[in-house]
Protein backbone atom coordinates (compact mmCIF):
# COMPACT_ATOMS: atom_id res chain seq x y z
CA UNK A 1 0.00 0.00 0.00
CA UNK A 2 2.82 2.41 0.88
CA UNK A 3 4.63 1.60 -2.35
CA UNK A 4 1.53 2.42 -4.38
CA UNK A 5 1.09 5.69 -2.52
CA UNK A 6 4.73 6.66 -3.12
CA UNK A 7 4.39 5.76 -6.81
CA UNK A 8 1.27 7.91 -7.16
CA UNK A 9 3.02 10.87 -5.50
CA UNK A 10 6.00 10.52 -7.84
CA UNK A 11 3.77 10.38 -10.90
CA UNK A 12 1.83 13.43 -9.69
CA UNK A 13 5.06 15.41 -9.26
CA UNK A 14 6.25 14.42 -12.72
CA UNK A 15 2.93 15.44 -14.25
CA UNK A 16 3.04 18.80 -12.47
CA UNK A 17 6.57 19.43 -13.71
CA UNK A 18 5.55 18.48 -17.25
CA UNK A 19 2.56 20.81 -17.25
CA UNK A 20 4.65 23.63 -15.81
CA UNK A 21 7.20 23.19 -18.58
CA UNK A 22 4.49 23.18 -21.22
CA UNK A 23 3.09 26.53 -20.11
CA UNK A 24 3.80 29.30 -22.52
CA UNK A 25 6.64 31.45 -21.28
CA UNK A 26 6.00 35.13 -20.93
CA UNK A 27 7.61 37.01 -23.79
CA UNK A 28 10.06 39.65 -22.56
CA UNK A 29 10.44 42.49 -25.04
CA UNK A 30 13.36 44.93 -25.06
CA UNK A 31 11.12 48.02 -24.77
CA UNK A 32 7.50 48.90 -24.08
CA UNK A 33 5.30 49.45 -27.11
CA UNK A 34 1.67 49.33 -28.13
CA UNK A 35 1.35 45.90 -29.78
CA UNK A 36 -1.95 46.72 -31.49
CA UNK A 37 -0.24 49.67 -33.19
CA UNK A 38 2.56 47.34 -34.31
CA UNK A 39 0.01 44.98 -35.84
CA UNK A 40 -1.71 47.83 -37.67
CA UNK A 41 1.66 49.11 -38.89
CA UNK A 42 2.60 45.65 -40.20
CA UNK A 43 -0.73 45.29 -41.97
CA UNK A 44 -0.19 48.71 -43.52
CA UNK A 45 3.19 47.57 -44.89
CA UNK A 46 1.53 44.56 -46.52
CA UNK A 47 -1.21 46.77 -47.95
CA UNK A 48 1.20 49.40 -49.32
CA UNK A 49 4.03 47.26 -50.73
CA UNK A 50 2.62 43.83 -51.65
CA UNK A 51 1.91 44.84 -55.27
CA UNK A 52 3.48 48.12 -56.43
CA UNK A 53 3.91 49.15 -60.09
CA UNK A 54 7.26 48.56 -61.76
CA UNK A 55 8.31 52.23 -61.78
CA UNK A 56 7.48 52.67 -58.08
CA UNK A 57 9.28 49.42 -57.23
CA UNK A 58 12.37 50.68 -59.05
CA UNK A 59 12.27 53.91 -57.03
CA UNK A 60 11.85 52.08 -53.71
CA UNK A 61 14.67 49.65 -54.47
CA UNK A 62 17.09 52.40 -55.51
CA UNK A 63 16.19 55.41 -53.35
CA UNK A 64 13.81 54.11 -50.70
CA UNK A 65 14.38 53.61 -46.98
CA UNK A 66 15.58 50.31 -45.51
CA UNK A 67 12.02 49.21 -44.68
CA UNK A 68 10.80 50.11 -48.18
CA UNK A 69 13.64 48.26 -49.92
CA UNK A 70 13.24 45.09 -47.87
CA UNK A 71 9.44 45.08 -48.16
CA UNK A 72 9.31 45.66 -51.92
CA UNK A 73 12.07 43.13 -52.67
CA UNK A 74 10.47 40.54 -50.35
CA UNK A 75 6.99 40.77 -51.92
CA UNK A 76 8.53 40.80 -55.40
CA UNK A 77 10.41 37.55 -54.73
CA UNK A 78 7.27 36.00 -53.24
CA UNK A 79 5.40 36.71 -56.48
CA UNK A 80 8.14 35.77 -58.98
CA UNK A 81 9.77 32.81 -57.18
CA UNK A 82 7.08 31.33 -54.95
CA UNK A 83 4.06 32.28 -57.09
CA UNK A 84 1.88 33.20 -54.11
CA UNK A 85 -0.77 34.83 -56.29
CA UNK A 86 -3.14 37.65 -55.49
CA UNK A 87 -3.38 39.17 -52.01
CA UNK A 88 -6.72 38.30 -50.35
CA UNK A 89 -6.51 39.64 -46.78
CA UNK A 90 -5.28 38.83 -43.28
CA UNK A 91 -5.89 36.02 -40.87
CA UNK A 92 -7.29 36.76 -37.46
CA UNK A 93 -4.35 38.08 -35.44
CA UNK A 94 -4.52 35.44 -32.74
CA UNK A 95 -2.69 32.23 -31.94
CA UNK A 96 0.01 31.31 -34.44
CA UNK A 97 -1.14 34.04 -36.80
CA UNK A 98 0.40 36.70 -34.54
CA UNK A 99 3.82 36.38 -32.92
CA UNK A 100 5.78 38.90 -30.88
CA UNK A 101 9.35 38.03 -29.95
CA UNK A 102 12.65 39.60 -29.04
CA UNK A 103 14.84 40.01 -32.11
CA UNK A 104 18.07 39.88 -30.10
CA UNK A 105 19.32 43.30 -31.27
CA UNK A 106 17.20 45.60 -29.08
CA UNK A 107 14.33 45.10 -31.51
CA UNK A 108 10.89 43.51 -31.50
CA UNK A 109 9.77 41.17 -34.26
CA UNK A 110 6.07 41.27 -35.12
CA UNK A 111 4.86 38.45 -37.41
CA UNK A 112 1.43 38.17 -38.99
CA UNK A 113 0.06 35.72 -41.58
CA UNK A 114 -1.47 37.13 -44.78
CA UNK A 115 -3.78 35.25 -47.13
CA UNK A 116 -2.74 34.92 -50.78
CA UNK A 117 -4.35 33.10 -53.66
CA UNK A 118 -1.92 30.16 -53.88
CA UNK A 119 -0.06 30.20 -50.58
CA UNK A 120 -0.14 31.91 -47.20
CA UNK A 121 2.68 34.33 -46.42
CA UNK A 122 4.20 35.24 -43.07
CA UNK A 123 5.25 38.90 -42.89
CA UNK A 124 7.72 39.80 -40.14
CA UNK A 125 8.60 43.42 -39.38
CA UNK A 126 11.47 44.43 -37.11
CA UNK A 127 10.75 47.40 -34.82
CA UNK A 128 13.29 49.43 -32.87
CA UNK A 129 12.62 52.01 -30.20
CA UNK A 130 11.98 55.59 -31.31
CA UNK A 131 14.38 57.58 -29.13
CA UNK A 132 12.69 60.89 -29.99
CA UNK A 133 9.20 59.73 -29.00
CA UNK A 134 9.31 61.04 -25.38
CA UNK A 135 10.21 64.53 -26.62
CA UNK A 136 7.46 64.43 -29.23
CA UNK A 137 5.01 63.23 -26.58
CA UNK A 138 6.07 66.08 -24.28
CA UNK A 139 5.59 68.70 -27.00
CA UNK A 140 2.13 67.33 -27.89
CA UNK A 141 1.09 67.39 -24.24
CA UNK A 142 2.27 70.98 -23.87
CA UNK A 143 0.13 71.99 -26.85
CA UNK A 144 -2.85 70.16 -25.36
CA UNK A 145 -2.39 71.90 -21.98
CA UNK A 146 -2.26 75.27 -23.75
CA UNK A 147 -5.44 74.40 -25.66
CA UNK A 148 -7.18 73.32 -22.45
CA UNK A 149 -6.13 76.54 -20.67
CA UNK A 150 -7.77 78.59 -23.43
CA UNK A 151 -11.02 76.75 -22.69
CA UNK A 152 -10.84 77.22 -18.91
CA UNK A 153 -9.15 73.94 -17.93
CA UNK A 154 -5.81 73.54 -16.21
CA UNK A 155 -3.40 70.61 -16.23
CA UNK A 156 -4.99 68.99 -13.16
CA UNK A 157 -8.28 68.41 -14.97
CA UNK A 158 -6.76 67.85 -18.42
CA UNK A 159 -8.47 64.47 -18.75
CA UNK A 160 -11.87 66.08 -18.24
CA UNK A 161 -11.14 68.50 -21.07
CA UNK A 162 -10.08 65.63 -23.35
CA UNK A 163 -13.24 63.66 -22.63
CA UNK A 164 -15.41 66.76 -23.14
CA UNK A 165 -13.69 67.99 -26.31
CA UNK A 166 -12.86 64.68 -28.02
CA UNK A 167 -15.27 62.19 -26.46
CA UNK A 168 -17.40 62.12 -29.60
CA UNK A 169 -14.48 60.98 -31.73
CA UNK A 170 -13.25 57.42 -32.02
CA UNK A 171 -10.21 57.92 -29.83
CA UNK A 172 -9.10 56.46 -26.54
CA UNK A 173 -9.95 58.96 -23.81
CA UNK A 174 -9.39 56.61 -20.88
CA UNK A 175 -6.13 58.36 -19.97
CA UNK A 176 -4.06 61.32 -21.06
CA UNK A 177 -1.16 59.15 -22.27
CA UNK A 178 -3.48 56.91 -24.32
CA UNK A 179 -5.07 59.97 -25.97
CA UNK A 180 -1.69 61.55 -26.71
CA UNK A 181 -0.47 58.24 -28.18
CA UNK A 182 -3.39 58.14 -30.61
CA UNK A 183 -2.87 61.78 -31.55
CA UNK A 184 0.76 61.06 -32.47
CA UNK A 185 -0.23 57.84 -34.25
CA UNK A 186 -2.61 59.85 -36.41
CA UNK A 187 0.43 61.92 -37.40
CA UNK A 188 2.45 58.78 -38.19
CA UNK A 189 4.58 59.02 -35.03
CA UNK A 190 4.94 55.94 -32.82
CA UNK A 191 7.10 54.83 -29.90
CA UNK A 192 8.77 52.46 -32.36
CA UNK A 193 10.26 52.59 -35.85
CA UNK A 194 10.25 49.86 -38.48
CA UNK A 195 13.69 49.13 -39.91
CA UNK A 196 13.31 45.84 -41.84
CA UNK A 197 10.67 43.58 -43.37
CA UNK A 198 10.90 39.86 -44.14
CA UNK A 199 8.43 38.05 -46.40
CA UNK A 200 8.34 34.25 -45.99
CA UNK A 201 5.90 32.07 -47.98
CA UNK A 202 4.61 29.22 -45.83
CA UNK A 203 5.26 25.69 -47.10
CA UNK A 204 3.82 22.46 -45.70
CA UNK A 205 6.11 19.82 -44.22
CA UNK A 206 5.69 17.56 -47.24
CA UNK A 207 6.63 20.40 -49.58
CA UNK A 208 9.70 21.22 -47.51
CA UNK A 209 10.82 17.57 -47.49
CA UNK A 210 10.29 17.30 -51.23
CA UNK A 211 12.24 20.48 -51.86
CA UNK A 212 15.05 19.35 -49.54
CA UNK A 213 15.26 15.99 -51.31
CA UNK A 214 15.46 17.71 -54.69
CA UNK A 215 18.22 20.06 -53.51
CA UNK A 216 20.12 17.11 -52.02
CA UNK A 217 19.86 15.14 -55.26
CA UNK A 218 21.05 18.08 -57.34
CA UNK A 219 23.98 18.69 -55.00
CA UNK A 220 25.10 15.05 -54.89
CA UNK A 221 24.67 14.67 -58.65
CA UNK A 222 26.81 17.74 -59.28
CA UNK A 223 29.53 16.38 -56.98
CA UNK A 224 29.62 12.99 -58.72
CA UNK A 225 29.72 14.56 -62.18
CA UNK A 226 32.65 16.76 -61.16
CA UNK A 227 34.50 13.80 -59.62
CA UNK A 228 34.03 11.72 -62.78
CA UNK A 229 35.30 14.60 -64.91
CA UNK A 230 38.38 15.00 -62.68
CA UNK A 231 39.08 11.25 -62.89
CA UNK A 232 38.87 11.42 -66.68
CA UNK A 233 41.32 14.33 -66.79
CA UNK A 234 43.74 12.47 -64.50
CA UNK A 235 43.55 9.37 -66.75
CA UNK A 236 44.65 11.49 -69.73
CA UNK A 237 47.82 12.70 -68.02
CA UNK A 238 49.72 9.54 -69.02
CA UNK A 239 49.45 10.58 -72.69
CA UNK A 240 50.97 14.01 -72.15
CA UNK A 241 54.66 12.88 -72.44
CA UNK A 242 53.85 10.95 -75.62
CA UNK A 243 52.13 13.92 -77.21
CA UNK A 244 54.58 16.66 -76.27
CA UNK A 245 57.87 14.98 -75.33
CA UNK A 246 58.49 12.19 -77.92
CA UNK A 247 59.79 14.43 -80.75
CA UNK A 248 62.05 16.38 -78.43
CA UNK A 249 63.43 13.14 -76.97
CA UNK A 250 64.33 11.81 -80.45
CA UNK A 251 66.02 15.09 -81.40
CA UNK A 252 67.99 15.11 -78.15
CA UNK A 253 69.14 11.48 -78.72
CA UNK A 254 70.28 12.21 -82.31
CA UNK A 255 72.12 15.35 -81.22
CA UNK A 256 73.81 13.45 -78.39
CA UNK A 257 74.99 10.66 -80.76
CA UNK A 258 76.33 13.17 -83.32
CA UNK A 259 78.20 15.09 -80.66
CA UNK A 260 79.63 11.84 -79.28
CA UNK A 261 80.90 10.82 -82.73
CA UNK A 262 82.43 14.26 -83.29
CA UNK A 263 84.12 14.28 -79.91
CA UNK A 264 85.65 10.79 -80.25
CA UNK A 265 88.48 11.74 -82.74
CA UNK A 266 89.19 14.90 -80.84
CA UNK A 267 89.54 12.93 -77.62
CA UNK A 268 91.88 10.43 -79.29
CA UNK A 269 94.04 13.24 -80.73
CA UNK A 270 94.11 14.96 -77.39
CA UNK A 271 95.05 11.71 -75.67
CA UNK A 272 97.88 11.06 -78.14
CA UNK A 273 99.28 14.56 -77.92
CA UNK A 274 98.86 15.07 -74.24
CA UNK A 275 102.11 13.36 -72.96
CA UNK A 276 104.46 15.09 -75.41
CA UNK A 277 102.70 18.39 -75.07
CA UNK A 278 102.85 18.22 -71.33
CA UNK A 279 106.46 17.02 -71.43
CA UNK A 280 107.56 19.74 -73.83
CA UNK A 281 105.86 22.47 -71.88
CA UNK A 282 107.06 21.35 -68.44
CA UNK A 283 110.70 22.56 -68.63
CA UNK A 284 111.33 22.27 -64.94
CA UNK A 285 110.27 18.60 -64.92
CA UNK A 286 112.61 17.86 -67.88
CA UNK A 287 115.51 19.55 -66.10
CA UNK A 288 114.94 17.55 -62.92
CA UNK A 289 114.70 14.23 -64.78
CA UNK A 290 117.78 15.07 -66.81
CA UNK A 291 119.77 15.94 -63.69
CA UNK A 292 118.70 12.70 -62.06
CA UNK A 293 119.76 10.67 -65.09
CA UNK A 294 123.02 12.59 -65.24
CA UNK A 295 123.85 11.85 -61.60
CA UNK A 296 122.95 8.15 -61.92
CA UNK A 297 125.04 7.55 -65.01
CA UNK A 298 127.99 9.49 -63.60
CA UNK A 299 128.20 6.98 -60.76
CA UNK A 300 128.25 4.07 -63.24
CA UNK A 301 130.83 5.72 -65.57
CA UNK A 302 128.73 5.14 -68.66
CA UNK A 303 129.52 8.51 -70.18
CA UNK A 304 132.31 11.11 -70.03
CA UNK A 305 132.04 14.60 -68.72
CA UNK A 306 134.56 16.35 -70.88
CA UNK A 307 132.15 19.15 -71.60
CA UNK A 308 129.73 20.64 -69.11
CA UNK A 309 127.40 21.79 -71.85
CA UNK A 310 126.80 18.41 -73.52
CA UNK A 311 124.99 15.33 -72.27
CA UNK A 312 125.76 11.96 -73.88
CA UNK A 313 123.26 9.13 -73.27
CA UNK A 314 124.69 5.67 -73.89
CA UNK A 315 121.56 3.60 -73.31
CA UNK A 316 117.85 4.11 -72.83
CA UNK A 317 115.65 1.53 -71.11
CA UNK A 318 111.92 1.61 -70.76
CA UNK A 319 110.75 1.19 -67.21
CA UNK A 320 107.60 -0.85 -66.85
Task: Give a short summary of the structure.
With 320 residues, this protein is α+β, with helices and mostly antiparallel strands.
* Strand proportion: 5-15%
Described by strand count, sense and barrel closure, the largest sheet is: 5 strands, antiparallel
As a percent range, the share of helical residues equals 55-70%
End-to-end separation in angstroms reads 127 Å
What does the model show?
By secondary structure, the chain is an alpha+beta fold. Helix content is 59%, strand content 12%. It contains eleven helices and five strands; from the N terminus they run ααααββββαααβαααα. It has helices spanning 2-22, 35-49, 54-63, 66-80, 133-150, 158-166, 176-186, 205-236, 240-244, 246-281, 283-300; strands at residues 87-90, 98-102, 107-116, 121-129, 192-201. Strands 1, 2, 3, 4 and 5 form a five-stranded antiparallel β-sheet that branches. β2 and β3 form a beta hairpin. α3 (54-63) crosses α4. The radius of gyration is 53 Å and the shape is elongated. It starts with a helix and ends in a 20-residue tail after the last helix.
Amino acid sequence: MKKRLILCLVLSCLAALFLTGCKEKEVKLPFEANQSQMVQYTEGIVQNYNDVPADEAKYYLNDGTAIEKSAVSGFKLAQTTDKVGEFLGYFDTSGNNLIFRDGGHDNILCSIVAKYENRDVQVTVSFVENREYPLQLKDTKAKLVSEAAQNGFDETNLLSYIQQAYGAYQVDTSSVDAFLGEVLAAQGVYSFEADECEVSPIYSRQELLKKAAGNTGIGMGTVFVVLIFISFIISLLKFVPMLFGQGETKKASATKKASTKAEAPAKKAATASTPSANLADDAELVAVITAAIYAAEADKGTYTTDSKDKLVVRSIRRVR
